[in-house]
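Blinded run. Sample ID left blank on purpose so nobody reads anything into the name before looking at the predicted structure. Input follows.
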Amino acid sequence: MRYRPLLGVLAFGLVMLPLTSCTDDPSLTSIIISPTSFTATLTLLPNGSPAPASEQLWTQYTATGYYTHPDHQPITKDITNQVTWLSYTPLLVTINSSGVATVAGTATGFTQITASMPGFHGIVTSSASTFTVNLPSSITTSDVVSLNILPTNPIVSSLNTNEGFVVIGTTGTGATEDLTTSATWTSSNTAVATIGAKTGLATALSDGTSTIVATYANPDGFQATAYTNLTVQ
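Blinded prediction complete.
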């Protein structure tokens, strides 16, 4: 008979165990952003130059968080105002903390938008959404309106080695030209790779990924931009 109180305590503990395990907060495992892609047409002034950013097209991005919990169905939450938003090329498109992405008003091309937030296993980052900015189709100009960087998303396997990039510009008339030494080159992560501002020659310094950006300014101030990723491993 002296074992009955002990058995009662054990039974109570076994009953309560599933209940206490449910008190753990669900864990963020993935983020989905919308729209998955977006295309805007640059607003121009009567003289053909880009209008101010306040007059450019904008769109609202939303972020949905997917949370998992042991022995429960996954749940979703609107986390648009909780994530950290990032535009890979803010010269082209800016995005604020509320997910409002706006054409910057000075360039054409495309960038990528992502959202990130701490999760159970570290920072959770969404798949990228491509935001493209085009000139109106009726506009024909000798200005360079788009750039194309080559090679695309190269991988370098040795440190202190060089990767040469070229950039080809396309004008509003459809003509193309090599602008490698006329464009301005930047690296988003100089700890991973540096790049000559007027040469397009990148040097791998450490493992990781850096976004390589090329920007070309036309004589009238109109700019075009493009980017690619350089991975060092």
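Unblinding after everyone has recorded impressions. The longest helix spans residues 4-21.
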